[in-house]
């Protein structure tokens, strides 16, 4: 073996390239960036689809400050209060029957010969004993008896109360209440999340908040808050303002607002629409239905129909709900009977449809809400725990004045 001498050429060795690994890194980074961008676009598109399923958005001003309440007790299931039936019409008093005539025997015997009598003796009354005379004197004549009975009836009727007949018991609004839901659904794929409905009241003012979160709470894909603010009246809720706020991950925040007054409603797109009696918004409709069912203004029976005018961000529509029937829902705290309502929706298959289930044992609150669009996409909100209520008011709230 010959040793290499200084200045001689080194033996040939395989060449090692140091530029191959750095050349691959930019390619991998580009692929990762492309996948991340596609994932972001997919999430934004999916969030937009979910936002469309929950409603519409437009420009809006700042919403009213949110009412506050401390929820410290669970609402336990109980039988609903009975609704008094409509009072029956008073019975008409029958007219007194005419006295029957004494029948005369058909074969009455013919009078025989009568002995002559003294005229003076014939005109004098026969002597009667003292008791018989007193009884005869105290008994009124037939005409006098009828007059006395009529006078007694008139006196009894005059002494009866003449005010209005008692009606159903006055409705008592529930105390401030929070309902929590588990969200499941399908919008171009399975979606999961949570939802919450809060009914808040302060005197004759109310707020209803419907908050929906799609995705994990620490990094939600989409959040939407729907708020109804208005007044409590003897006819139910009277919205004054409705606000929507939708926030999409890595996207802009969209808002919408409706303004109600005595003459009508201004929609989110600026259009003016004349008012309708008992007009509600997306959030207030559920509590208004609770009011109608509790007071008996709307009777829940299979095959029934319930109409409700509804103001949406870009249109005013009259919704008709079909009463499907009473169903038993399986909840985490046990089976709950609830009445299923489904709206009649015609025309475009992409229009929204909101079904709801109301539980009589939980103050007719909505224990399930399903929002559908078309035949494939839906979001299902199922109550996950007993409702929470505030302790600042007696159970059921204060009655309307």
Automatic annotation (TrEMBL):
Locate the compositionally biased regions of type Pro residues. Answer: 106-116
Residue spans of biased composition, Low complexity class: 89-105, 117-162
Give the span(s) annotated as Disordered.
1-24, 81-171
Residues annotated as transmembrane: 30-47
**What Pfam family is a match for this entry?**
DUF3108
Alphabetically list the UniProt keywords: Membrane, Transmembrane, Transmembrane helix
Protein name, as recorded: DUF3108 domain-containing protein
Give the source species: Methylibium petroleiphilum (strain ATCC BAA-1232 / LMG 22953 / PM1)
